[in-house]
Amino acid sequence: MHKFLWMLFFAFTIVSCGTDTDAGEFVVGSDYLAINNKVVLIDTMTVEMSTINFDSLVTSNQSRILVGNYDDPIFGKVKSLSYFQLSTDTYNLNIGSGSDTEATNYVLDSISMILRYDNYYYGDTTKVQTFDIHRLTQKVKPNIDDDQFYNNSTLTYDTESLGTISYKPRPTEKDSINIKMNRDFGEALFQKFKKREITDFDSFAEYLKGLVIVPATANSSSVIGFNLTSRLRMYYSKYQSGAEESLIKDFEILVPARQFNSISLDKTGTLIQNLPVSSSKLSSRLTSNQGFIQSGSGVACRIDFPNIKQLKQIAENGAIVDAELILKPVNNSYSDQYPLSDSLRVYTADNLNRIGGNLLNSAGKSVFGVLNKKTDEFNENVKYSISIGSFLQKEMLKKSDSRASLILTLPTISKGVNRLVLGDQKHLNNKIQLKIYYISY
Fold first, then answer.
1. Vertex 321, ends 316 and 327: CA angle to 5°?
2. Who is most buried in 141, 256, 374, 389, counting CB within 10 A?
3. pTM
């Protein structure tokens, strides 16, 4: 009994453990002892927070056309362009029966781009958003040694706009928007089909390499998501024997890997404008005791536990049976325009921010941060909770001097621009908390 009390006292002096009221009954698993035992709560272990910036994120094959821009009051200027390659199921104008000789009876009516909402939006959708559609002068083709596109990938395109729209986004109220395309562009494409100069995908892709949707710099309000059932639609008519038949031909994104979003963030004048290279970090001490996360741009939050191995000094035989990391969004950093994500993705990484994999629990299942949305007068209950007991136990017992970090991102990391601001241990109102339940046996 005296030995156990001495061990608890030693724990208090080493890591500032809680008081007697922090200890309670705990049923220990079979890995330790299948009996009731005393557990001490350690709640003042040092937790370091920093912000990192991945140099690139894969944005191809994400099944979302992401377009728009807005001025974020915390993160800076956010912008997303979307590039894509089109194709069609048949490369002729005849629908059903009929011969190519009938092509002389076909006449173009109009051509439009139909963009179908996928219910994703971020920013202020009450304001007008403007964007233009341009023709690519470069094929949607990855590098020889890579088959993916990234948030910093770009392709060259013609400066002439083929279609423009200014609209107030209604992503949850309407199903699509329709952009009337340039008549000359449509007629030239139509004639290629009519004259049988386009007969397969190769000849089509050589003529129309692809399109890019570019948000106007003058309008900064929101970023909107459209799905891959969006299409370029050609309306034309067939005249035969005094009768007129209205027809359409759709050009779609049939290969999701040939669509990607180029997402940029201008951080000038913000707390994170001096983010270092991807292998380094920016301490929360230099960013007003805050850590930052933003999808699309590669901004992520890193968590370190520099003193975790000190727990081994508490007892010859001891273990972390559970641990909870509680992260609180900074007050006034979120709103209806900038809503909180329901969850966080959690990864393990080395000192150079190289991702090792998902954070796993003792059963080998991925661990996520879960948002508690219950609000009170001071928003004290708005927090993310992450179970990290298994992770800290391994870190405590690790024989090498290397330490693993936790990297926090949002679920929309490669297909959105959602963001989050978290408080560190020194933050005035929204402190990060770590609760470790430690047992000696």
1. 125
2. 389
3. 0.88
